[in-house]
Specification:
The structure is a homodimer of 318-residue chains.
Chain A lengths: L5 H9 L10 E3 L6 E3 L5 E11 L10 H19 L2 E11 L4 H18 L3 E8 L4 E11 L14 E4 L5 H11 L6 H7 L5 H6 L7 E3 L4 H12 L1 E6 L14 H6 L6 E5 L4 H10 L6 E8 L6 E5 L2 E3 L10
Parallel strand pairs in A: 4-5, 9-12
Antiparallel strand pairs in A: 1-2, 3-6, 4-6, 7-10, 7-11, 8-10, 9-11, 12-13
Helix pairs in contact in A: 2-3, 4-5
């Protein structure tokens, strides 16, 4: 009895090989569960991230770019807590008759998994009306370490690893011509995942978050979780366009650049700068400071002592 | 800046509390990653499982039943490897304007999480055309243990924990009246998850799988992975209806009962029977035997020495 096995085989073959291997992976794709042996004296950091066609990426974007972006966006959560990547599980929902799509998607996933050194541990493929990619990533942290959103304290600096806004400004191009994979759309399709730098920050930073909902929205997440205000200096924020550009506001609210926003004591400045240079993050710098709370996690953007206001602070799915 | 926060808040609140707590969970819902401290000298077993509205459950099924079923189906993979449950992550894709749905869904998820003692570790909620529930479950295994599909050996017994077919036969009722939650639809909405029994099997069984694609299809998965044939005795297979019933074939190919199908040496028979009684599995019994391979994982169903043939062996998503 082997009728109708072709789709099982197709999917199994597409995702079966070519991923980075790791000795801690005892059982990968193909059984009921994956089995991983975590390094001793570590904790397990995990995150799950879903990307929906037409919501998070254009429906007709090339499959390998969709795959790469989905894995990068998910892995960025590991960077935000300072974890070392261990692997990922994939849940893929596909419209029918997408055999060509699967091969191209699998290629993009494999290439990105290699670049990030993340083995594929397992997955589930289902049929649905819309392409949906869910990635569950995991990594390890040294015992009792890990960057968290709630640890920002008044008096600390606010840092950003690099410019925000490139992905937001690439969006019209991405929507008009989803297959265009150039330096402008690269920020959108291939966001840098700061895994190595995030891990270096473990002993240097207090709170951290990856900028996925927009700088202002994610700054608010830290401020709220920590019970503080964040004051940002407009002129210190590295952005895709200068402050005079009509799209400057969009850079601060547009999300999706996956830079790390973090807070740290001023005593750590020199070491953070050294780590940033080592990691090649030439635009990493201080963009503001942490203050006693005056509200439910306020984020104030100032320029020459004036508070700027924004109509929109970040992306909302609903 | 706190505009448009209502949906973030709604979702956060719906899933924020009421889940079983566990000391190994160091950081749960609300940060970039969850952080879990695995027990020492264990490995981590994980699985990801997606359920799509209109494919895996009726579109208009009650939200709490959808949630409970999704978590049970995913957790069943832990049972199939013998793992002790540790927690789960949820990725939920929802059509717009589903506020009522979220509350009812969260209630069902919470109740089931309590019943299975699985803390909610984290999640992601997105907007899409179709309701899609992805659950990533995890559990722990003692070092160098774990039931796997490829360990069936010729001469061993084939066991099944209980009857198959109830969920398949409930399907017409479920489709006609998705809200009907009675003893017939219970097998569909609330499949038993054999976590405790699966863990007991660690030292007794060789290969195991949970029956989700249909008994014959899942038996084939074991046979193929192990490089053996499985011979099943039609009269020994516990089914929802007797063999004379026109729906008997559907019981063997219908999937979705989440019984455990496993293989074990005959020397383990008495201990397995004792464990099954302890776990309340009165219908757990031997349904066949493992043989040298004569093909690519053949599954033969025999009755009085005659081989039965089936047009359909299991459910296919594509």
């Amino acid at each position: 009895m082997s009728a109708n096995r072709s789709e099982f085989d197709l999917i199994r073959d597409a995702f079966a090989s070519g991923y980075p291997e790791a000795e801690h992976v005892l059982l990968g794709v193909g059984d009921d569960c994956s089995v991983v042996a975590p390094p001793s004296d570590t904790t397990l950091a995990q995150s799950i991230d879903t990307q929906v066609a037409g919501v998070h990426f254009p429906q007709d974007a090339p499959a390998h770019l969709i795959a790469g972006r989905a894995l990068r966006c998910a892995a960025s959560d590991l960077a935000a807590v300072g974890a070392v990547g261990q692997g990922f599980h994939l849940a893929l929902t596909l419209p029918d008759n997408q055999n060509d799509f699967i091969d191209d998607f699998a290629r993009g996933l494999r290439d990105t998994a290699k670049a990030l050194n993340l083995p594929l541990l397992g997955g589930d493929t289902t049929s649905g009306k819309q392409l949906i990619v869910t990635v569950a990533v995991q990594g390890w942290l040294p015992l009792e370490q890990g960057l968290k959103r709630h640890k920002a304290r008044p008096g600390q600096d606010v840092w950003l690893t690099g410019p925000v806004g490139h992905a937001a400004l690439a969006l019209p191009t991405v929507l008009a011509n989803p297959a265009q994979d150039d330096e402008h759309t690269a920020a959108y399709y291939h966001p840098d995942v700061h895994l190595a730098f995030g891990h270096l920050l473990l002993s240097l930073a207090s709170a951290a978050i990856d900028v996925s909902d927009g700088l202002l929205q994610d700054a608010h997440h830290i401020a709220r979780a920590s019970g503080v205000d964040l004051s940002l200096d407009a002129q210190q924020i590295p952005t895709a366009v200068s402050q005079e550009h009509p799209q400057w506001n969009a850079c601060l609210s547009g999300g999706d650049d996956y830079q790390l926003l973090f807070t740290a004591s001023s005593s750590a400045r020199d070491r953070i700068r050294a780590c940033a240079l080592t990691a090649g993050l030439e635009h990493c710098g201080i963009i503001g400071s942490v203050h006693e709370a005056t509200g439910d996690g306020r984020v104030i953007v100032q320029q020459n002592g004036q508070e700027l206001t924004f109509e929109r602070t970040g992306y909302q799915h609903f």
